[in-house]
Write a structure and sequence with these properties.
This protein is mainly alpha-helical. The protein contains twelve helices and four strands, in the order αααβαβααααααβαβα.
């Protein structure tokens, strides 16, 4: 009983810490006249993925690579199957922004690169692992993606509906005292650290109690728990008829997980691909690949039927993986 309470408390601190970090950082950026668009593409993206990053770093420091792997890959699958499916059921998603159209193939590319990296040692008769050299390559891809995105922002802000919306609407009010923003950042960082410690410790105990691997706990308990910020953000965006933000939040989070969270953890300690991990990577790749024809051939629309289909596929995968 105490394990579940500790796990819930840890996840709550992670989510609350990420929220406070985003709120405080956005307020500080607003005081320095930083564009809301830039804040959205950097601070918001980092804030919603901060729980995954903290869990990845702490698990790597504890030499629990199965949790690192399950947390990142499970979060990516949950974002594409569960979060995006729920958002589409709430309101069909139609895409207009050029940035999102470009990021979707990039997500597929990033997932494919990770699959190839995991397969390389396996084909040589070795245990599949993402080592430090793989991590450096992924981090390089992340910096290239961030650089290209920044250039695209500067050139397309007037022609892209997503960017113009982000640039014209303030993310946070600036009436709050400056001290409040700095305190929010400090409390957010403390919440993330304490939440990560509680989540990892109780997650390991939960795996022992249920007699399952840390990978399973990472794939579903940690992944779904840390995906709650993306779920709330995407559902609210769908309700407010901001579909580009709903999809962009999911794709941006997955890119950050794949090109930042995973390699940063692997730099600390190589991440081994656990038993069944290649299946998880393949499912993540298939979810990303399935969205390509939907948005490029299917009139750039993710309807409720497809949303229910995504939820069904995620449910089947989760059931099959646990059993």
């Amino acid at each position: 009983m105490f394990v579940f309470l500790g796990l819930v408390l840890g996840l709550s601190l992670l989510i609350g810490g990420g929220f406070l970090l985003v709120k405080g950082s956005s307020g500080i950026a607003a005081r320095f006249n930083v564009s809301p668009m830039i804040v959205g593409l950097t601070i918001i993206a980092f804030g919603t993925s901060a729980p995954e990053l903290i869990i990845g770093i702490l698990a790597a420091l504890r030499d629990q690579s199965d949790i690192v792997f399950g947390n990142v890959v499970g979060s990516n699958i949950a974002n594409l199957g569960l979060v995006l499916g729920i958002a589409a059921v709430v309101r069909p998603i139609e895409i207009h922004g050029q940035i999102v159209r470009r990021e979707l193939p990039l997500l597929l590319l990033a997932t494919g690169v990770i699959v190839v990296m995991a397969l390389d040692p396996l084909l040589r008769g070795m245990s599949p692992v993402l080592d430090r050299s793989d991590a450096i390559i992924l981090l390089f891809l992340f910096f290239v993606f961030f650089y290209v995105t920044a250039l695209d922002v500067l050139h397309r802000r007037s022609s892209d509906s997503l960017l113009s919306d982000m640039d014209s609407s303030p993310l946070v009010p600036v009436e709050s005292p400056a001290t409040y923003d700095w305190v929010s950042v400090a409390l957010g960082l403390v919440g993330l650290f304490l939440g990560g410690q509680l989540t990892i410790s109780n997650g390991v105990e939960l795996a022992a109690l249920l007699d399952v691997s840390g990978t399973i706990v990472g794939l579903f308990v940690f992944a779904v728990g840390t995906s709650l910020p993306e779920l709330v953000t995407s559902v609210i965006a769908a309700i407010r008829r901001e579909p580009d933000l709903a999809l962009g939040n999911v794709i941006g989070s997955n890119l950050f997980n794949s090109l930042a969270v995973l390699p940063i953890s692997a730099v600390i300690r190589p991440v081994g691909v656990p038993s069944g991990g290649m299946l998880d990577l393949s499912v993540s790749f298939l979810f990303a690949a399935a969205l390509i024809p939907i948005f490029w051939i299917g009139r750039a629309r993710l309807g409720r039927r497809v949303g229910w289909l995504l939820l069904f596929c995620y449910g089947v995968y989760a059931l099959g993986r646990v059993l």
